[in-house]
Amino acid sequence: MAAERPLQIAGAINAYAALLAQGAGFTALYLSGAGVANHSYGVPDTGLTGLSDVLTDARRITGRTELPLLVDIDTGWDDPAEAVRVMEAAGVAAVHIEDQVPAKLCGHLPGKRLVPESEMVARVRAAVGGRRDPGFVVMARTDAAAVEGVAVAASRARAYVAAGADMIFAEAIGSLDDFRSFTSAVGVPVLANLTEFGKTPYFSLQELREAGVAMALYPLSASRAAAAASLEVYSTIRREGTQRNVVGRMQTRSDLYKTLGYTPPT
After folding, report:
1. What is the rounded distance in angstroms from the CA atom of residue 173 to the CA atom of residue 184?
2. pLDDT tens by residue, 130-173
3. 4's torsion region: left (phi>0), alpha (psi -120 to 50) or beta?
4. Sign of dihedral through CA atoms 233, 237, 240, 243?
5. What is the mean pLDDT of the chain?
6. Which positions are annotated as active-site residues?
7. What is the pTM of this model?
8. 201 phi and psi angles, rounded to 5 deg
9. What is 102-141 written as a DSSP string?
10. Which residues contact 244 (CB under 8 A, 6 or more apart)?
11. Which end of the chain is more exposed for a tag (fewer CB within 10 A), N or C?
C-alpha cells in the first residue's frame, strides 16, 4: 500500500490463479469466500462453507507465492479469534470479517440482514485478539450501505475501527460521492469492491484515488472469464467432436511450464 494507491488486489481462486496474477504484475492477492464456495465446492455463497474449507485454499496459495494474501473469513464462523490464529499461521497477511448474519448473502444481492452494531464490534474485538503478529491486518467489512445507507455504514465503520479494525471493506457503495463521504468519515484505509455485475460501478483507479479509496479489489474477475471460456471450450468439443477450433484460445504447454517455473527434462 505504501508503493501503490489505490492498491490493486487480484482475486485468485487457487494457487495457479495466484501465480498468473503475480505474473501479470499484481502485488497483492485475495481469496474470496464466494470463490471457495463456487469453485471448490460448486455451491452458492450462502454460508455453506467454513473455516477449514477456506483454510485449505489459503494454504495452497501462500505455499506458492509470497505476495500478501487477503482472505474472506465471512462472519468469523464460530470463533473469529481462532479463524485469525489459523489464517496467520497459514501465512495469510490479512482477513476481513463482515457484519451480516451468519446465513450470509453475496454483498451485492438484495435481502441482506445485518447483526446489531454491538455484535459486530464483539466480532472485531475477538478477531483482533486472535492475532499474534502485530503486522497481521484485520479488516472489517460493512454491508450497511445497501441496507441502512452510507451515513449509517460510516458510523458502523467508525465503531469497528474503535474496536480495533485496521482497515474497512466498504461493500456495495454506488457512487464516487458516497465513497468520498465514507472515506473522509472513517479515517483508516478503505477498500472498494469492484466485483462485476454488482452495485458498484467499474470505477478507474484515478476516480477511486480522488475519492480517497486506498484499495481496489477485483475478487472474481479472472475466474468469471475462465468459467465463460471453459464453457465455450466444453460446448465446442461436445458439439464438434474435436478441439481443433479452440486450441488457439488455450494456454500452451510452454506457457504453463513458464508460469509454474518448471523446466522439463530434455
Report:
1. 14
2. 999 999 999 999 999 999 999 999 999 999 999 999 999 999 99
3. beta
4. positive
5. 96
6. 30, 45, 72, 74, 96, 98, 106, 141, 171, 193
7. 0.96
8. -65, 170
9. SS---TTSS---B--HHHHHHHHHHHHHH-SSTTSEEEEE
10. none
11. C
